[in-house]
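Example 9 (inverse folding). The structure is encoded as follows.
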């Protein structure tokens, strides 16, 4: 286990388990989630490894207290561990300074989990779990440029004014779904996973989908030798852009990995970045 601070979550074990806590409490009731988490942890270690077990159990109690779902049993077991110096051996061996710092943290932790907790909070998963579109489908989406700055200005790229950028609002671009890339799969709840949709983009910005001829589409190279990009696998972003599936073909073969392709993120709209600028900047040379 890697430990970088005396805090409750200042170690690899706690950090690795936080996503598992979210997944378990998102999927199951509190008692079932606790049982599933404990079964999973015990496939790796148990109370005989005091340092690891503290990292697990304290972080679990801390997470549950913050979410307003800490049970009396988990609280009482955590308090008993603190009072009995369970897991303090490594901190004592590290010297008086480390021991003192850890005891201060544990004192505050004990006081916190014994204090009144908030009302139960809804557990949210920061994953995109939908599997959007079928592989090979051609999808037309509308640009949403009004009120946004054009953020892709550079000496090496064809320029466009904000007014010209805004004039493209509502026009269509064409994408083809290639595959879904799955990452960050929960070990406790496998269906809780982070999906990223992989697309390729085609030349052209269209006033109407009736003007689009799938057979004549030419793909855009988004980076040298690479026509693919990834985006959040969430239909809500595509619904906001009036998407229409306009056909289906064969998705190109190839080992498309999310970490080696361009990312265009429909969920981000900031003064220095918006997805419409990213799309338009790559299509301008072909207009």
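The amino acid assigned to each position is listed next.
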């Amino acid at each position: 286990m890697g430990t970088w601070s005396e805090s409750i979550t200042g170690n690899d074990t706690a950090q690795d388990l936080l996503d598992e806590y979210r997944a378990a409490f998102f999927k199951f009731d509190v008692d079932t989630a606790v049982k599933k988490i404990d079964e999973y942890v015990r496939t790796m270690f148990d109370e005989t490894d005091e340092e690891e077990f503290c990292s697990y159990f304290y972080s679990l109690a801390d997470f549950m207290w913050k979410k307003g779902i800490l049970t009396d049993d988990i609280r009482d077991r955590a308090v008993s561990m603190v009072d009995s110096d369970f897991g303090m051996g490594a901190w004592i061996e590290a010297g008086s300074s480390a021991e003192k710092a850890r005891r201060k943290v544990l004192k505050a932790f004990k006081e916190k989990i014994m204090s009144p907790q908030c009302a139960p909070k809804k557990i949210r998963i920061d994953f995109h779990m939908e599997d959007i579109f079928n592989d090979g489908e051609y999808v037309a989406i509308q640009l949403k440029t009004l009120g946004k700055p054009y953020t892709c200005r550079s000496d090496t790229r064809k320029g466009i004014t904000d007014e010209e950028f805004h004039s493209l609002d509502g026009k269509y671009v064409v994408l083809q779904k290639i595959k879904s890339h799955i990452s960050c799969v929960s070990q406790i709840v496998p269906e809780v996973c982070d999906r990223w949709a992989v697309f390729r983009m085609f030349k052209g910005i269209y006033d109407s989908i009736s003007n689009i001829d799938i057979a004549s589409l030419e793909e855009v190279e988004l980076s040298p030798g690479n026509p693919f990009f990834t985006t959040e696998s969430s239909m809500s972003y595509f619904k906001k852009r009036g998407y229409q599936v306009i056909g289906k073909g064969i998705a190109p073969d190839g080992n498309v990995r999310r970490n080696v392709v361009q990312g265009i993120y429909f969920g981000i709209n900031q003064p220095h970045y918006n997805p419409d600028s990213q799309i338009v900047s790559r299509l301008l040379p072909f207009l």
